[in-house]
Amino acid sequence: MTPPITAGTLRPTSTDTIPVGSFEITVQNRDHTRPFLLLHGGGGVRTMAGFADLLSERTHSRVLLPTHPGFGGTPKADGLNTVTDLAQAYVALLDELDLADVTVIGNSFGGWLAAEIAILASPRVSGAVIIDGIGIEVEGHPVTDVSGLSAAEIMAYSFHDPSKAPVPPATSGSAGPSPDVAALIGYTGPTMSDPTLAKRLGEIDIPVHVLWGESDGIVSPEYGKAYADAIPLSTFTLIPRTGHLPQVETPEEILGELLDLGTR
User: CB 232: neighbour CB atoms within 10 A?
Assistant: First the structure.
């Protein structure tokens, strides 16, 4: 198990563009000691930024929050075409930064990425937290197709309490998917799943905590239980009164789960 999370002194946040092989990754770096790699979902880096601040302010940790290449107007390199490609890029990023004992935390698409990183078995990664992840196929519980939905419609599926949903960012058109959703589909394909992933999850040999919002309208709690069941060293926790983005809707509850995890 990873060591306990303890309180620490807040240090400044920087934003760096780090070369990784033939491409670059833009990373927000909340620079403390123990490293966490936070991976956002299809809603873009803004869906994880607030929680990154909370984690860095409340714990003695170094919090890295990259923008996936192709999201947020960033360029997508020719060599990054699949979720596995992107997971390999993040392992290379950890090598470039010479980090150890990293806990990877991912939401939605970022949860899939966290799972793929765990499968790669980098010695730099000691644990993973999957928050309402996507990527597997579960009979009777399909992933909601967001490719034809507007940002406002996606928010309606994503929140237990719609009043907590952030105002969708303005786009060039009022209908259809946002540029970040288009970038998401570019990595995942239109089904947002990989038929081989569930079996490959059995290769993970580090502790994984699977957290799920009870009101998730994108991927149901039953889908989340199947996700956890496929991972040998996993625990599953259902988070009440929250949807697909618990780190946005109920961040204190997610932080509490991480603090509890650090003492187990």
Answer: 13
116 half-sphere exposure, CB direction, 13 A CA radius: 28
CB atoms within 10 A of CB 124: 18
Which one-letter amino acid corresponds to residue 196?
A: T
Dihedral of the CA atoms 119, 215, 161, 107 (nearest 10)?
A: 0
17, 75 Cβ separation under 8 angstroms: no
∠ CA 96-99-103, nearest 5°, is: 125
pTM above 0.90, yes or no: no
The per-residue pLDDT for range 232-261, each reduced to its tens digit, is 999 999 999 999 999 999 999 999 999 886
Whether 178 and 101 have beta carbons less than 8 Å apart is answered as: no
Helices within 98-144 (DSSP H only): 109-119
* pLDDT band at 1; cut points 50, 70, 90: very low
Q: Comparing C-alpha atoms, which of 7, 71, 13 is closest to residue 39?
A: 71
Domains along the chain with CATH numbers: 13-262 (3.40.50.1820)
- Collapsing DSSP to helix, strand or coil, 15 comes out as strand
pLDDT-based confidence at residue 86 (cuts at 50, 70, 90): very high
